[in-house]
Design a protein that fits this description.
By secondary structure, this protein is an alpha+beta fold. It has a single domain, classed as Glutaredoxin, CATH 3.40.30.10. 55% of the residues lie in helices and 12% in strands. It has nine helices and four strands; from the N terminus they run E-H-E-H-H-H-H-H-H-H-E-E-H. Strands 2-1-3-4 form a four-stranded mixed β-sheet, with helices on both faces. Helix 1 links the parallel strand 1 and strand 2. The relative contact order is 0.20. It comes from Paraburkholderia elongata.
Length: 210
């Protein structure tokens, strides 16, 4: 059985769901998990103005109420001329996957989420992403230099790999994040979209096996 998680590190609902997703993986260690980068606002050129900040803060409040996730609102409000382009951070997750295919990609994904939502780091900056990614891989037991991560992240190969994830997202018909799919007995089905409770997802998955 494979669980396919389609998300974006700079999607607030994905951030809220991340603890639930981690719980699912922890409680079902035999589950094969595929993480696909959705590209929520990949390639966006829009500068985040005050209206855009307030729009996101409204969403953040809803996510916080639903999930208890921690948000650094001050960091968002302090941003100047920030372009909300999620391609760089999605590519960083893909870069980690390319460098160490056996790494726990969900942990890497969550490290980038925390960097943006809690630490207030600029997750559109390549060198910042390389520092986060290399540190997350080192914490997972892999020896990775920041420069090595940045070089691969900057490559055409990584750009194309991220684009392949975005294309798969479109092929799957995903219109919102996070979205979960399950592959079982040669069939693929959508489990749900948006914030979900781990217990509900587990119950559904276990019901397929029974």
């Amino acid at each position: 059985m494979k669980l396919i998680f389609v998300g974006d590190p700079m999607c607030s609902w994905c951030y809220g769901f991340s603890k639930e997703m981690a719980s699912i993986v922890e409680n079902m260690p035999e589950l094969d998990v595929q993480i696909v980068m959705g590209g929520l606002a990949a390639g966006s050129k829009q500068v985040l103005d005050e209206a855009g900040k307030q729009f996101r803060l409204t969403h953040w409040s809803r996510v916080e109420q639903m999930s208890g996730a921690e948000f650094n609102r001050e960091a968002l409000l302090a941003r100047k001329n920030f372009v909300y382009d999620t391609e760089p951070v999605c590519r960083a997750v893909v870069t980690a996957r390319m460098m160490q295919p056996s790494a726990n990609l969900l942990k890497i994904f969550r490290a980038f989420q925390r960097a943006f939502y809690v630490d207030g780091l600029d997750t559109t900056d390549g060198m910042v992403l390389a520092e986060i990614g290399a540190a997350a891989l080192r914490q997972s037991g892999f020896s990775v230099a920041v420069e090595e991560f940045f070089e691969l992240w900057s490559s055409d190969e990584a750009i194309q790999a991220a684009a392949a994830d975005f294309a798969l997202t479109q092929k799957l018909g995903v219109s919102g994040f996070p979205t979960l799919f399950v592959e079982w007995n040669g069939k693929r089905g959508r489990l749900g979209s948006g914030y979900m409770r781990a217990a509900e997802v587990q119950q559904t998955l276990e019901g397929l096996v029974d």
